[in-house]
Amino acid sequence: MFSNPFSAFSASRPSRACLRTGGRTRCPLKTTPAGRPVPQAFFVKGERPRTHSSKKKIMKTNTNSDSRLLNRTAQRNGDKLQRIDFARRNRNRGLPTESLLSLIRREAPEFWELAEVVGRWVWIQFDGKQPSQITAVLSEFGFHWNRRRQAWQHPCGQMTARADFDPRRKYRSYFPADANLA
User: Fold this and answer.
1) Class of residue 73 by CB neighbours under 10 A (exposed 0-12, middle 13-18, buried 19+)
2) Model-level pTM greater than 0.70?
3) What percent of the chain is predicted at pLDDT more than 90?
4) Angle 38-26-18 (CA atoms, 0-180°, nearest 5)?
5) Other beta carbons within 10 Å of 29
6) End-to-end CA distance of the chain
7) Each residue of 19-58: pLDDT tens digit?
8) Domain residue ranges in the chain
9) pLDDT tens for each residue of 83-97
10) Of 4, 36, 57, 137, which alpha carbon lies 20 to 30 A from 167's?
């Protein structure tokens, strides 16, 4: 039924074991120091020999439903995440600077003292990490976190490309809470 591909090659003449196909020479037999041919595997380009099964080993564990293990977020916070009204967030992202400042002054006076206007954007910076309640409120106002500048930023409807310089040097920067005192 199936013929042996090596039957055509004689053990006494290993040099004839090389085949010429498609302009390439292939030698399926390798000659040992004793002069005996040893079969060598045929490989398709890109395939590796499979020496062992690639089946993933699964660790057996006995799960205990009473363990009450929590995911990482729940372990860190201990309380539930604040709900964010994304429809309100999207509306607030397009507010002009003056409208956003009046919204902050009216609804979150604790942020009014920290708000800094840089060009047409509003930035809010904190000394340390804020609790999830504060980040949820800022997010709902339309702010996003800028990791590079370590500040909450609001574009005030002016979506611009990322700057490789400090915008405070190029644009006018002021704190509206200080301007109202004067």
Assistant:
1) exposed
2) no
3) 31
4) 65
5) 19
6) 101
7) 666 666 666 655 556 656 555 555 556 666 666 656 666 7
8) 86-181
9) 888 899 999 999 999
10) 137
